Amino acid sequence: MKYLLILTFLLQTALFSQELKIKADEFKGDQNKGISIFTGHVRIKKVNDELNASKVTVYTDKKNKPTKFVAVGDTSFKIQTEQGAHYRGVAQKVIYLPLKKEYHFFGNVHLKQLDDKKEIFGDEVILQAIDGKAYAKGVEKEPVIMIFDIKDEKEKK
């Protein structure tokens, strides 16, 4: 528990003083290698962003600043971009690169933009939280599917 509190403090400080809270059933860390592993009902919350998974591995640099988060197993997430767009979704694996503010989603990805009612289904999706850009790839036999909710002019009246 003591190590979890220390790690949480270091991660909070490293992420521009925004509170980063990690909850999990179990924690293992190796400060020399810069690796922290959280397992069992992992929930990471930072301001308006949230990441849930069965296991999350956090990689840090020599100054204990997080450089990469890798989440696997029952991953779900909520993200707000710097432009204020809200996303929610699921994937088999999520990689977050905090220095680039970039999310990589892999395996049965379903990403939904809540504000504009857009949805992306694919095998690999990249979301850049700084500029709100998204890129998607389908699997070999399955295309990327994008769904838009287009209102008819008559419906607006």
UniProtKB/TrEMBL annotation:
<dbReference type="InterPro" id="IPR005653">
    <property type="entry name" value="OstA-like_N"/>
</dbReference>
<dbReference type="InterPro" id="IPR014340">
    <property type="entry name" value="LptA"/>
</dbReference>
<dbReference type="GO" id="GO:0001530">
    <property type="term" value="F:lipopolysaccharide binding"/>
</dbReference>
<keyword id="KW-0732">Signal</keyword>
<feature type="domain" description="Organic solvent tolerance-like N-terminal">
    <location>
        <begin position="21"/>
        <end position="129"/>
    </location>
</feature>
<dbReference type="GO" id="GO:0009279">
    <property type="term" value="C:cell outer membrane"/>
</dbReference>
<protein>
    <submittedName>
        <fullName>Lipopolysaccharide transport periplasmic protein LptA</fullName>
    </submittedName>
</protein>
<keyword id="KW-0574">Periplasm</keyword>
<keyword id="KW-0813">Transport</keyword>
<dbReference type="GO" id="GO:0030288">
    <property type="term" value="C:outer membrane-bounded periplasmic space"/>
</dbReference>
<dbReference type="Pfam" id="PF03968">
    <property type="entry name" value="LptD_N"/>
</dbReference>
<dbReference type="GO" id="GO:0015920">
    <property type="term" value="P:lipopolysaccharide transport"/>
</dbReference>
<dbReference type="InterPro" id="IPR052037">
    <property type="entry name" value="LPS_export_LptA"/>
</dbReference>
<dbReference type="GO" id="GO:0017089">
    <property type="term" value="F:glycolipid transfer activity"/>
</dbReference>
